[in-house]
Amino acid sequence: MDRKRMRKLYELEEGQWPEADLLAVVRERYAAPAIPPCRICGGELSIQASGGGKPTVYGCSPYEDDPAEPGMLRIKEGRTGVDQHYSDSRHTDYKQGGDSLVMELARRFELLRAMVPVIGEAVDS
Ligand SMILES: [Zn+2]
């Protein structure tokens, strides 16, 4: 949602927000973030640190599953363990992965709303 529209919304009490805008803001806030690929090799980033109320940190792991020893890891070819590639690839996700429960609730609300129209004019005018 663009900034101008957001500013107009925040001039209203939340109870007066049109449902479509309320849903859009909630979805924007709680959607799982798009984690970019590694800026060095284009590979998939994996979670390196999370929890404790801190942002989730992703990085291009120097390790991969070792097919010769199931359950074990090996260092990827061309890597030297926790290296410059790893440091330079780190991506911090301040949304901490979003919230799938909120997204599910928004989905169910939208389904219900399709079946039950708004009653009166108080909510969606
Ligand atoms: Zn990489």
Question: What features would you describe in this structure?
Answer:
It is elongated, with a radius of gyration of 21 Å. The longest helix has 16 residues, at 100-115. The chain has a domain at 35-115. The chain has helices at residues 3-10, 19-30, 84-89, 100-115; strands spanning 46-51, 54-59, 63-65, 73-75, 91-93. Helix 2 runs antiparallel to helix 4 (100-115). The protein is an alpha+beta fold and 125 residues long. It contains four helices and five strands; from the N terminus they run ααββββαβα. The strands form two sheets. Strands 1-2-5 form a three-stranded antiparallel beta sheet. Mean pLDDT is 89; it is low at 121-125.
Q: Number of helix segments? A: 4
Largest sheet: 3 strands, antiparallel
Instruction: Please state the CA-atom Rg, rounded to the nearest Å.
Output: 21 Å
Helical amount among residues, as a percent range?
Answer: 25-40%
Bound molecules: zinc ion
Number of strands: 5
Flag low-confidence runs: 121-125
> How are strands sequenced across the largest beta sheet?
1-2-5
Tell me the β content.
Answer: 15-25%
Order of helices and strands: HHEEEEHEH
Mean pLDDT: 89
What is the molecular shape? elongated
Quaternary state reads single chain
Distance between the termini: 19 Å
Structural class: alpha+beta
Keywords:
125 residues, alpha+beta, three-stranded antiparallel beta sheet, two-stranded antiparallel ribbon, 4 helices, 5 strands, 17% strand, disordered C terminus, binds zinc ion
Secondary structure: elements and pairs:
Elements: H1 3-10, H2 19-30, E1 46-51, E2 54-59, E3 63-65, E4 73-75, H3 84-89, E5 91-93, H4 100-115
Antiparallel strand pairs: 1-2, 2-5, 3-4
Residues 38, 40-41, 43, 60, 85, 89 line the site of zinc ion.
